[in-house]
């Protein structure tokens, strides 16, 4: 039932035309793929910053405190965007099967 609600919201967002639904789905997939890439880059940057700061003995309280917080947020966004992309792909496949 949750999948049907997702399709209904897609229809309302993009219109009732299957071609416009397909265009909207593909645009959304690109958007969330960019979010995943950004989250991965941010996570890698935080890890590199932490390691470099540790190697040069410049770890201060801000780095020690904020690194896990930023890393956790980035990982959460990466996973959530992945879930959204998979739902969008499934919706795209259903639309393509109907065409």
Describe the structure.
By secondary structure, this protein is mainly α. The protein is rod-shaped and about 60 Å long. The mean pLDDT is 87. The protein has one domain (18-98). Helices cover 90% and strands 0% of the residues. Helix 1 (2-14) packs across helix 2 (18-55) and helix 2 runs antiparallel to helix 3 (61-98).
Can you give keywords for this protein?
99 residues, mainly alpha, 90% helix, rod-shaped
Separate helix tally = 3
Number of domains as seen in the coordinates = 1
Spatial gap, N to C terminus: 22 Å
Beta-strand portion reads under 5%
Strands, total number? 0
Please compute the radius of gyration using only Cα atoms. Answer: 19 Å
Poorly predicted segments: none
SSE topology string: HHH
The gross shape turns out to be rod-shaped
Determine the mean pLDDT.
87
Structural class: mainly alpha
Largest sheet: none
How helix-rich are the residues, as a percent range? over 70%
Brief description of this entry?
With 99 residues, the protein is an all-alpha fold.
Layout of secondary structure:
Layout: H1 2-14, H2 18-55, H3 61-98
């Amino acid at each position: 039932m949750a999948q049907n609600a997702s399709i209904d919201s897609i229809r309302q967002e993009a219109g009732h035309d299957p071609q416009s639904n397909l265009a909207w789905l593909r645009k959304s997939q690109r958007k969330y793929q960019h979010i995943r890439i950004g989250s991965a880059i941010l996570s890698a940057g935080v890890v590199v910053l932490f390691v470099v700061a540790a190697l040069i003995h410049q770890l201060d309280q801000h780095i020690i405190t904020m690194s896990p917080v930023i890393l956790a947020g980035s990982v959460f966004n990466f996973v959530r965007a992945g879930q959204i992309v998979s739902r969008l792909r499934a919706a795209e496949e259903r639309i393509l099967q109907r065409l």
